Amino acid sequence: MPKAKIHVCTRTIGQNNRRKKNEPCIIVMANGAEYDDGIRARTVIITDRRGQEVARVVQVDNENRLSTGSNCWIETMYDAVIEGETKKVNPIAAIPEYEKRKKAKK
Questions:
Q1: Residue, of 86 and 20, whose pLDDT is higher
Q2: Is 26 exposed, middle or buried (0-12, 13-18, 19+ CB in 10 A)?
Q3: Average per-residue pLDDT in the chain?
Q4: What pTM, to 2 d.p., does this model score?
Q5: Every domain of the chain and the residues it spans
Q6: Which DSSP state fits 10?
Q7: Cβ distance 55 to 46 under 8 Å?
Q8: With contact defined as beta carbons under 8 Å apart, do 39 and 27 qualify?
Q9: Which run of H or of E encompasses 72?
Q10: Which residues lie closer than 8 Å to 62 by C-beta, 6 or more apart?
Q11: CA distance 45 to 52
Q12: Do residues 79 and 92 lie in contact, with contact meaning Cβ atoms separated by under 8 Å?
């Protein structure tokens, strides 16, 4: 089955930080493609066979980073199953807990 590999280039992230730029750090490579043949992007939408979005890889500029400092992450509304663990992370169920922790920090 053909696969696309999605790579986050930390070298580009570092260069963006040093040079105050916002070059795309996400690289999508088709099955068997070389690194130099990859397509660079700031957002990549991952779909299922029906074309429905299941996840996206997002890059934001330095001014809109997460509070952790991350400027590139994966978003999904589906359960995230952690390999080797018995539990999974349900993003919908996690929202009330996140809001509660956020209020407690204030």
A1: 20
A2: buried
A3: 83
A4: 0.74
A5: 1-75, 78-106
A6: H
A7: yes
A8: yes
A9: strand 72-75
A10: 16, 17, 20, 22, 71
A11: 10
A12: no
